[in-house]
Write a structure and sequence with these properties.
Elements lengths: L8 H7 L1 H13 L2 H5 L4 E2 H8 L3 H13 L3 E4 L2 E4 L1 H6 L9 H14 L2 H7 L12 H22 L10 E5 L5 H9 L4 E6 L4 H10 L6 E5 L11 E7 L7 H13 L1 E14 L7 H13 L6 E2 H10 L2 E7 L7 E8 L4
Parallel strand pairs: 4-5, 4-7, 5-6, 7-8, 8-9
Antiparallel strand pairs: 1-3, 2-3, 8-11, 10-11
Helix pairs in contact: 2-5, 2-7, 4-5, 7-9, 9-10
């Protein structure tokens, strides 16, 4: 490429891409998509329902239309198939909670340079105890998992398993889907006490209280109780440094029967650590908010499993919107 052919367009687009993100965040925070629902509303209709300024609301609606999230005809606005599916609150595939979680991360991302220079997190730890932020995070994980679980679960054979340990299972989405597809399976979610109300509420929605229970525990600091046929570790290792990850994997393995199956689901980097893009960016997100968290490569995760006595390690690929992947392995001699 010659010097004349070089164009700063992509750089400028990336630099200002947070404008689009913040526009989406505002639309979700104000619940604009749910207000419109399946109707065609004017900016005045939306402004009245929001008790907001008509000029400001009109600007937001026009920007959301330009982004392809609303459709404008004459002076009315309606949802597109995309926004109807994912941004209307009562839609089964709603992802508004994770969008709100992303909004809560904006401040820390604006200080990424500080975190990079210091190597220390800059995110306010108080956010973890803020009820609104915690709900956005937990229910955001639920939103994402509800879209992914129907794709992932059929790829994993748990037909011979009777008891699944869902370590750091949060609202229990994967336990629910594993139990729905395996009628003889029971599951135990192990997570912090503050997570229990969200999990119990979610489990009750699927009428699985008799097959899924919740154990309050800090799996990093406390011993894991019980003996299980399979262990599911979804998106928990990226929150910890390598030493603690090995500790977690070791605890999961020690709770499994010989021949038990361990499954790690996470954002997996390639072995040169420079892609795919989302796991690479997610490492920075962990730098901003944790003392040691990061995305790990397949080679690193395989070593953690192998060192814990896990064999027959395999990668499961599936269509993921954020480049997550799964590694599975067998503990000890198969029965």
């Amino acid at each position: 490429m010659t010097l004349q052919e070089l164009n700063p367009g992509n750089i400028l687009k990336t630099s200002g891409s947070y404008w689009e993100a913040c526009t989406l965040h505002a639309g979700v925070k104000l619940d604009v998509f749910s207000i419109i629902g399946n109707k065609h509303l004017t900016q005045k209709d939306v402004a009245d329902k929001l008790h907001g300024d008509q000029k400001g609301v009109e600007m937001l609606l026009n920007a959301l239309s330009a982004m392809g999230l609303l459709e404008k005809n004459d002076n009315t606005y309606s949802n597109t198939p995309l926004s109807s599916t994912f941004l209307v609150r009562d839609a089964s595939r709603y992802i508004g909670h994770i969008v709100k979680h992303h909004h809560h991360l904006v401040d820390s991302w604006s200080r990424l340079d500080v975190a990079v220079k210091s190597g220390q997190p800059v995110r306010d730890s108080a956010a973890h105890t803020d009820e609104e932020r915690r709900e956005s995070f937990l229910m955001g994980m639920f939103n994402l998992a509800m879209n992914l679980a129907p794709i992932i679960v059929p790829k994993i054979d748990l037909s011979k398993c009777r008891h699944l340990m869902d370590m750091g299972g949060g609202p229990g989405t994967y336990s629910i889907h594993f139990c729905l597809i395996n009628q003889n399976l029971k599951a135990t979610i192990i997570d912090l006490p503050s997570t229990r109300p969200f999990a119990e509420k979610t489990i009750a929605k699927f009428n699985l209280q008799d097959r899924i229970d919740f154990k309050s525990a800090d799996y990093l600091e406390q011993e894991v109780e019980g003996i299980y046929d399979a262990a599911w570790l979804s998106h928990i290792l990226h929150g910890e440094g390598p030493q603690d990850c090995r500790k977690i994997v070791g605890k999961a393995v020690s709770a499994l029967k010989p021949g038990g199956l361990i499954m790690i689901h996470d954002f997996i980097l390639n072995n040169t650590m420079d892609g795919p893009l989302f796991p690479a960016l997610f490492s920075l997100n962990m730098l901003l908010g944790t003392s040691g968290g990061q995305s790990y490569s397949e080679k690193q995760l395989t070593a953690m499993l192998s060192d814990a006595g896990v064999g027959d390690i395999r990668r499961i690929y599936f269509d993921s919107p954020n480049d997550s992947g799964i590694l599975t392995g067998i503990v000890g001699p198969a029965q």
